[in-house]
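Suppose a classmate hands you a notebook page containing two proteins, each written out with its sequence and a corresponding row of structure tokens. How would you begin to make sense of it? This section walks through that situation. The first entry is reproduced here exactly as it would appear on such a page.
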Amino acid sequence: PFFHRADFYGPHHPYVVPEPYASMYDPEDVERPDSYAETFDGKPRVHENFLHYRGVADFDWDTWAEAVAKYRGFVTMIDDQLERILKSLEEHGLEAETAVVHASDHGDFVGGHRQFNKGPLMYDDTYRIPLQVRWPGVVEPGSVCEDPVHLHDLAATFLEMGGLEVPKSFHSRSLVPLLEGEDPEERPDSVFAQYHGDEFGLYTQRMVRTRGYKYVYNGPDIDELYDLEGDPAELQNLIDHPGYADVREAMRERLVDWMNRTEDPNRKWVPDVLRERD
């Protein structure tokens, strides 16, 4: 048995790639994402400040379209490198007995919400990342699983694939049952995330996301609440909307429960802060 990890610097800024990838995609074919209509109304101040911090406040759509085109070329270049790995497995007769997993550490705004790269903004653009698995004889080719999972779930997954016990200290769950097409009794219905940033001073964030809603706790600023079914572009912050008071409370309870279960160091004072924000 073997475990091989290949890391690629990309797709990532600067979006500089060789031909034919550099001119593979036409900026004229790039459509504006719905989130490009961002106004930052009712959002934490850091969102708009980040445009200036990144130096993209004056970018027009033509500039972004060119960046997106280059970004897509970068993605295609990485895809071609992954193809080389798959072909090598075939050449060595290992493809039928090797599980291949493709993931990323984060996404990229590339103009979404008029933003660049990533930062203290917990939108799906950067937090909903690719996760693809080829596992011959186990995963049905072309199948799709919509269950929410965490990136660190891969650690427990790899251990179970290798027949090893998952340490009880792991705050992760193996994805093997989902990959095998099983229907676990305790299916995950939400995911959580942390951000420990230093933009404009210490900027601490926590996030909980279900299929229908996303709640973001922002330490130094107002929190965020999005109705992902009615507003998938996450343009309208509903944190103070009276019609979503019950949703806000339920999402906060989920977040605090998770912080307690994972022994988050902020768990000692965040619940009190949230009560004061009601």
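The notebook's second entry, a different protein, reads as follows.
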Amino acid sequence: MDRNPLLPLSIDTFSGIENSMINISFQSCTLTSQSLIAFTRLKNLERLKLQSNLLTKILPENLFSSMLKINCY
């Protein structure tokens, strides 16, 4: 999904495919901190790349606690 200016993501964005998402890249997509809620239901997510977005804070603090690796710079 890199370099795609996306509409705001919601908690239902990945509805129906929550268990199959393991590795996702959303680099340079103009994502904001409010969009991070979309990733909370992805229980098998191990890697998430969020470089070059408009993130200012990550809440809740434990949002990514189950992931093995996260690239967010």
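A careful reader of the second entry would note: The radius of gyration is 11 Å.
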